[in-house]
Design goal:
The structure holds two protein chains of two kinds.
Chain A lengths: L1 H10 L11 H7 L7 E5 L5 H10 L2 E6 L2 H9 L3 E4 L2 H4 L8 E7 L8 H11 E9 L4 H10 L23 H11 L1 E9 L12 H7 L2 E8 L2
Parallel strand pairs in A: 1-2, 1-4, 2-3, 4-5
Antiparallel strand pairs in A: 5-7, 6-7
Helix pairs in contact in A: 2-3
Chain B lengths: L11 H9 L4 E5 L5 E2 L5 E2 L2 E8 L9 E5 L25 E2 L4 E2 L4 E5 L31 H15 L6 E5 L1 H12 L6 E5 L7 H16 L8 H4 L4 H15 L2 H7 L19 H16 L2 H13 L10 H4 L6 E7 L7 H13 L3 E7 L13 H18 L7
Parallel strand pairs in B: 5-8, 5-9, 6-7, 9-10, 10-11, 11-12
Antiparallel strand pairs in B: 1-4, 2-3, 4-8
Classes of the chains: A alpha/beta, B alpha/beta.
């Protein structure tokens, strides 16, 4: 399922750099310190892991739900296992990784709160990226169209979507408070993958950001 | 004919000769270098028969050890000296294959207790001058691995680039990683488990009882008495062979089709193709395998329980392991089903290991690891490629 999200995101003309890398993945990668030990939960076809290994010398591991995604990753030489974010994170020991990443994964989990808590337990840092359901285009589609929104990044009909827990950037900030996560860095990307101005107020992020990328840590 | 004809077309002396004087390289360990067995016995003298493919590089860093399964042997990628068939893993091992012999130095030893040239119950007991038979000590997977480590010492290979094997071969891979973590850079345990399940022990017991129920077995002294428990061994093989396949594969291959006839004969003849096929499997196995070896090797698998050696905690077997793992299972394997591989992965994760895990969709059952499975080949190739990069091995000339 996650694999589908990611492939569709790829095919849906997700914003890319001239080098061909997806901008949202680069935003995630920029938050990772070089040489770190990283777990990418829902790693899809392994593009982020490859970016991290080649660009930042990261010791990366991945979990992926779809068998095709896993086998593709392993054939690329990536350390990826088949598994489910909702059930398998419980098996990882505390502080096993420097970073645990949920790149376009959280909204497809059954229990986002539990997954987020495990992320903060397993990793010293967490990085979460997700599509912002508070984006103006989405709000307009519901307000004026009266139906569930579909965009380039979210091309599914409601009955066919792997994304079962949408949230807005505002909602996500509230969840971070609930689970005791500190936001160390935040980036909102517009429809073209450009980062919004850092000093813009939160409500503009929630309105103009098509995706949010957040670096989290445990609140001590 | 009602009873299957298990009479053999070959000269049994051929196979008996292989036990002592195989068509392979042999290293002999004298009385001064005994193999310390888990049973508390020193086995000496003893010998290991092995095949090699490719060339060991100057740094001695490109060696891959292949561990064979229960009924396999060291003839991975060459014509078998007894059956004259292709090697059992020729699709995987060879020039340009996933385990590329133009790049890696591949070693495959016959395991201790087997019958193709490494010391086992069919070998001559130096004390008596006749085959060991049941006087041979019961061996374990750990004993097999200990013997292989002695072989590598002899060959001057301090550390393996990789080690690969399916089924009982996979058990050896896991035991290697647990016993000698610093000697294993990467490991490919395929269609295997860290412990033999009760169901699998049960299947093995049926096979052993079939051998022992054959009046020609003579308490394992069939060599001395000039008999051959071929019926018992063939029946054991027939039963086991079913467990290597799957319901879907059998149905696809044979269905309910008749063998060379249009109607049932209303007898116990092999009316169905699947019966004829199983009888053929039985007979061809007897040609190349020793009945006592079958008892010893199935026993070794039954005793295998990696966690038991670590206070019951599997993760302790791999604590802080430097080895990179690639665990592979098959969807239709009901002998070593995917949850067993998942248990390995959980233990490795808990130990902080670098592990990949792939489940391959196939209806070919446990035997899929021996068959033409393009996805398996791609995964093994990719995993070794990544490991070779990490080890600093230069790519093959293209």
């Amino acid at each position: 399922m996650l694999m589908r999200v990611k492939q569709d995101l790829t095919m849906a003309e997700a914003a890319r750099t001239p080098g061909g890398a997806r901008v949202d993945l680069l935003a995630v990668a920029e938050m990772v310190a070089p040489g770190a030990k990283v777990l990418d939960v829902g790693c899809g076809d392994g593009e982020l892991l490859r970016l991290l290994a080649e660009g930042r010398g990261v010791d990366g591991r991945g979990i992926e739900l779809s068998r095709e995604g896993v086998n593709e990753c392993v054939a690329k030489g990536l350390a990826v296992i088949q598994g489910d974010a909702d059930t398998d994170l419980a098996d990882y020991p505390d502080d096993a990784f420097d970073y645990v990443i949920l790149s376009q994964t959280l909204q497809a989990t059954r229990q986002p709160r539990v997954v987020l808590e495990h992320m903060l337990r397993i990793g010293r840092h967490g990085i979460v990226s997700f599509p912002n359901f508070g984006h103006w285009k989405i709000r307009l589609q519901i307000l004026l169209g009266g139906h569930m929104p579909r965009t380039d990044n979210l091309p599914y009909a409601w009955w066919d979507s792997p994304n079962i827990h949408f949230c807005t950037i505002k909602d996500f900030r509230e969840l971070c408070l609930v689970v005791g996560a500190k936001m160390e860095k935040s980036v909102a990307l517009d429809a073209w993958g450009r980062a919004l101005r850092f000093n813009a107020p939160w409500w503009t992020w929630n309105l103009l950001g098509e995706q949010g990328v957040f670096l989290l840590s445990r609140r001590s | 004919m009602v009873e299957a004809d298990f009479s053999v077309a070959f000269d049994p002396a051929d196979r008996a000769r292989e036990a002592d004087h195989p068509h392979s390289q042999v290293v002999r360990f004298g009385m001064d270098k005994p193999l310390r067995l888990d049973a508390g016995i020193d086995l000496a003298p003893f010998q290991i028969a092995y095949q090699t493919y490719g060339t060991l590089n100057a740094e001695r860093s490109n060696a891959i050890l292949i561990c064979h399964a229960l009924t396999g042997d060291q003839h991975v990628a060459n014509v078998h000296p007894v059956t004259h068939k292709q090697g059992w893993w020729e699709t995987m091992v060879g020039p340009g294959r996933p385990i590329d012999t133009e790049r890696y130095f591949v070693i495959c030893p016959n395991v201790v207790g087997a019958c193709m040239g490494t010391t086992g119950p069919a070998s001559t007991n130096p004390k008596t001058g006749s085959p060991w038979g049941l006087d041979f000590p019961v061996i374990t997977v750990r004993d097999m691995v200990r013997a292989q480590a002695m072989l590598l010492d002899h060959l001057g290979i301090a550390s393996l680039f990789s080690i690969a094997g399916g089924s009982m071969g996979g058990m050896q891979v896991l035991q290697w990683a647990a016993s000698y973590p610093r000697r294993v850079f990467s490991a490919l345990p395929i269609a295997t488990s860290t412990r033999h399940s009760a169901q699998n022990i049960a299947f093995h017991e049926v096979g052993r009882q079939a051998v022992m129920a054959d009046p020609e077995w003579r308490h394992g002294r069939y060599f001395a008495e000039g008999t051959n428990p071929r019926r018992g061994l063939a029946v054991a093989r027939m039963g086991a062979h079913i467990t290597y396949l799957s319901d879907a594969a059998l149905h696809r291959k044979f269905g309910r089709r008749f063998q060379d006839r249009d109607n049932p004969t209303f007898s116990f003849d092999a009316d169905f193709q699947v019966e004829s096929y199983l009888r053929h499997q039985g007979i061809s196995f007897v040609e190349r395998f020793d009945a006592n070896s079958y008892l010893y090797l199935t026993r070794a698998m039954d005793y295998f329980d990696l966690a038991a050696d670590c206070d019951g905690v599997l993760a302790n077997a791999f604590k802080d392991t430097p080895t990179r793992f690639c665990v592979i299972s098959f969807t239709s394997d009901w002998l070593f089903p995917t949850p067993e591989s998942r248990a390995i992965v959980h233990a490795l994760n808990a130990g902080g290991a670098r592990v990949s895990f792939a489940e391959i969709v196939t209806d070919k059952g446990h035997d899929a690891f021996l068959l033409d499975e393009p996805e398996l080949f791609a995964i093994v190739r990719g995993f070794l490629e990544g490991a070779a990069k990490a080890r600093g091995l230069v790519p093959a000339r293209s």
